[in-house]
């Protein structure tokens, strides 16, 4: 555990953020009390880029599936719930 004053924390914030990121418990002491510094886990911190959707490709695939449906192939069409699930993703 690392305990620092507010003055030391302000002067070396990057150092203490790095310590907190590495799992070290960092406590900042002030006149009002002591505060624990913890990293917040967010989706924005992901290292991999999110896959971009190719909407044109998806629409073309849907039109081909619909054409197959009109030609008699009933297996490729999604149910209403499956379509809504795909739209939400």
Structure overview:
The chain has 89 residues and is α+β, with helices and mostly antiparallel strands. The protein folds into two domains: 2-39, YefM-like fold, CATH 3.40.1620; 55-88, no CATH class. The protein has four helices and three strands. Strands 1-2-3 form a three-stranded mixed β-sheet. Strand 2 and strand 3 (33-37) form a beta hairpin. The two termini are 42 Å apart. The mean pLDDT is 82.
Q: How many discrete domains?
A: 2
CATH topology name of the largest domain, in short, is YefM-like fold
Mean pLDDT: 82
Measured by DSSP, the beta-strand proportion falls in 15-25%
Shape: rod-shaped
- Element pattern in H and E: EHHEEHH
Low-confidence stretches: none
How far apart the termini lie comes to 42 Å
Give the CATH architecture of the largest domain.
Answer: 3-Layer(aba) Sandwich
Classification by helices and strands: alpha+beta
Count of discrete alpha- or pi-helical segments spanning 4 or more residues = 4
Radius of gyration: 26 Å
Quick one: biggest sheet? 3 strands, mixed
CATH class of the largest domain: Alpha Beta
- Portion of residues within helices: 40-55%
Strand tally is 3
Strand order of the largest sheet: 1-2-3
């Amino acid at each position: 555990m690392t305990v620092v004053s507010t003055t030391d924390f302000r002067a070396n914030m990057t150092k203490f953020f790095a310590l907190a990121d590495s799992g070290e418990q960092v406590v900042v002491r002030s006149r009002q009390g002591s505060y624990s510094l913890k990293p917040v886990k967010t989706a924005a911190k992901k290292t991999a880029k999110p896959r971009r959707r190719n909407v044109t490709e998806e629409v073309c695939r849907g039109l081909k599936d619909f054409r197959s449906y009109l030609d008699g192939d009933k297996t490729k069409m999604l149910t209403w719930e499956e379509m809504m699930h795909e739209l939400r993703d």
